[in-house]
Design a protein that fits this description.
Elements (H helix, E strand, L loop, with lengths): L1 E7 L21 H13 L7 E4 L3 H14 L3 E3 L16 H4 L3 H8 L16 H13 L5 E5 L1 H12 L15 E8 L2 E10 L3
Helix pairs in contact: 1-2, 5-6
């Protein structure tokens, strides 16, 4: 059995207003760096032997202090990458409101896909499956820094729920959700534990 600590990247200045997706150059600001330091403190006694991170800058900015505190290197894991939101990337949530494709995405996350991505227009369920496949291969405790929708998809899969139920879970920035995984199964042991920066 392995203990997986799923960490959503810390706050950046576009959280909650802009759909960043795979937009380059989205970095943590001062508040996010303080949150990353608090995450490092919270995970110091986790026993993690590996720190995995999405290749997005905001995830790496979060993972590095955690890895430093644990005396480990960060391993970039494309399986933990954000969903490619295609034509929606960089648009405000206010601007997306009322878009029929956006409405379809938010009512059928298990099957809907963002428009015109860069070759990887996967559903949220597929994003969760790629991340869970990586996490299931981890032999020991690990920290995995990723993104809200990817983490929610993993958690829903472990709970045996459809990805269409994504809005039943909150995965806040700079939060930790923990799983125990074993061959053929797993269980949720902690959800959306937020740290004080």
């Amino acid at each position: 059995m392995s203990r997986i600590h799923l960490v959503r990247h810390a706050t950046h200045d576009r959280v909650g207003t802009i759909l960043c997706g795979r937009m380059p150059g989205v970095r943590l600001g001062p508040a996010g760096h303080a949150e990353a330091a608090a995450l490092a403190d919270a995970l110091a006694g986790s026993g993690a032997t590996t720190v995995l991170s999405s290749p997005r800058d905001r995830a790496l900015d979060t993972a590095r202090p955690i890895a430093d505190r644990l005396g480990l290197a960060v391993t970039i894991a494309p399986e933990l990458d954000e969903i490619d939101f295609g034509d929606w990337t960089g648009r405000s949530f206010a601007d997306l409101d009322g878009d029929p494709d956006w409405t379809a995405w938010n009512t059928a996350r298990a099957s809907a896909r963002p428009p015109k991505g860069q070759g990887s227009c996967e559903s949220m369920a597929e994003a969760g499956a790629r991340a869970l496949a990586l996490l299931a291969r981890q032999p020991k405790a690990c920290v995995a820094v990723s993104h809200g929708d990817v983490i929610r998809a993993v958690l829903l899969a472990i709970l045996g729920l459809s990805t269409d139920a994504y809005d039943r879970l909150t995965v806040a920035p700079a939060s930790i959700s923990s799983l125990d995984l074993w061959p053929g199964g797993g269980r949720l042991v902690g959800l959306n534990r937020c740290v004080d920066a």
